[in-house]
Design brief:
With 223 residues, this protein is an all-alpha fold. Helices cover 72% and strands 0% of the residues. α1 packs antiparallel against α2, α4 packs antiparallel against α5 and α5 packs antiparallel against α6.
């Protein structure tokens, strides 16, 4: 990664991270549909804005860096790495089921589709793109010259990935927060290792697919 590309991707990554964490500008809107959380659809709109911004910046500055978004190798990757993701989803479901039982939610189909599926598809795409596709590669580029630069990048990106979720957990019990942060960091390690092991074969796309599976699996069982 040359210096120009590194600067452009760093600015883009910081911009996307700010938009994702703050919800701006989409969160300024209020859209009410059935029993769907009024902030969810604005966040979905924000995901679209983030995607358009990323495309414009990459095209405008002619960034040709390989993020690993090719479908090539996706099938082979799923065969090799999907099972741990499935196990993680099942274990997460069991933990949530035990902690939240008995369930008293009565969601409409709109809430299930928008909050439980569409929202987390957006989360999977956006978070994997800027955490693994951008941030991890940027850290690795800054650590260029070190023999363990890839390991450093995976560790740093995973820890930031975990800590970055704390804002969304405020108000929860300390042990719940601790568990979620540790499990998210662990997920970051797993995805980071997969991504850097076979990045040229489109394994960022694999990470996106696995993360969407885990998130949707948890939420659909909660609702």
């Amino acid at each position: 990664m040359n210096k120009k590309t590194r600067v452009i991707l760093t600015i883009l990554c910081l911009g996307i991270a700010f938009m994702d964490i703050s919800g701006l500008p989409g969160v300024l809107l209020k859209v009410n549909i059935a029993d769907v959380d009024p902030y969810i659809i604005p966040l979905l709109i924000n995901f679209i804005i983030i995607g358009m911004l990323a495309i414009v910046v990459l095209k405008l500055f002619k960034v040709t860096y390989n993020f690993g978004l090719s479908v090539c190798g996706l099938r082979e990757g799923l065969k090799s790495y999907a099972m741990p993701g499935i196990i993680a989803g099942v274990l997460s479901f069991v933990a949530f089921f035990i902690g939240l039982f008995p369930f008293d939610y009565r969601p409409t189909i709109w809430r299930i589709l928008i909050e439980g599926v569409l929202y987390y598809i957006g989360v999977g795409i956006i978070e994997e793109f800027y955490v693994r596709g951008l941030f991890l590669n940027i850290v690795e580029a800054f650590a260029d010259g070190k023999d363990n630069k890839t390991e450093i990048a995976i560790i740093v990106s995973s820890v930031v990935f975990g800590l970055g979720h704390i804002l969304g957990m405020l108000g929860m019990g300390i042990w719940v927060i601790l568990f979620k942060v540790v499990s998210t960091i662990g997920m970051g390690f797993y995805f980071g290792i997969i991504y850097k092991k076979r990045v040229i074969y489109g394994f960022l796309l694999l990470c996106i697919v696995l993360l969407i599976y885990v998130l949707c699996h948890i939420v659909l069982h909660r609702t």
